[in-house]
Amino acid sequence: MKQTRMVVVLIVAAGLMVLSGCAYVNVKSPLDLDLDRTTLGEKTGVAEARSLLWLFAWGDASYAAAAANGGITTLRHADQEVFNVLFGLYTRWRVVVYGD
Fold first, then answer.
1. Is a pLDDT exceeding 60 seen at residue 17?
2. Which pTM value belongs to this model?
3. How far apart are CA 90 and CA 100, in angstroms?
4. Which residues contact 49 (CB under 8 A, 6 or more apart)?
5. Residue 84 and residue 92: Cα distance in Å, rounded?
6. Is pLDDT above 70 for 62?
7. Dihedral angle of Cα 63, 67, 94, 57, to the nearest 10 degrees
8. Which of 15, 24, 44, 78 has its CA 20 to 30 A from that of 9?
9. What would the DSSP string read from start to end of the chain?
10. 80 contacts 26 by C-beta, under 8 angstroms
């Protein structure tokens, strides 16, 4: 009986670790490795793509689109943002670029 409880507890703990962040995710992170030498520049550009119901996706979250949206010709830095609800039922990918 004691072993059965331990197995159940381990299975539940493993399931919670696997499913963590599945209901809601809002993460922002840099797309640059040398942050100590990064200069952002004068302009900012944003581009995004979205997905709905795991069936439909639209948008352009590329560096080129973000740079064009911000009028940027020289890229200096980029960030990414991911917003996800209910296992990806709705997802938004956003790229933010900085430059001149």
1. no
2. 0.71
3. 33
4. 57, 58, 59, 60, 61, 92, 93
5. 7
6. yes
7. -70
8. 24
9. -HHHHHHHHHHHHHHHHHHTTSSEEEEEEES-S-GGG----SEEEEEEEEEETTTEEEE---HHHHHHHHT-SSEEEEEEEEEEETTTTEEEEEEEEEE-
10. no
In the structure, what pLDDT confidence band is assigned to residue 8 with cuts at 50, 70 and 90?
confident
- Integer angstrom CA distances of residue 50 from 3, 39, 58, 62, 95: 46, 29, 6, 13, 12
Q: Which of 97, 100, 88 is nearest to 21 (CA)?
A: 88
Cα–Cα distance between 67 and 47 in angstroms, integer? 8
Pairwise CA distance, residues 28 & 75, whole Å: 19
Q: Is pLDDT at 41 greater than 70 in this prediction?
A: yes
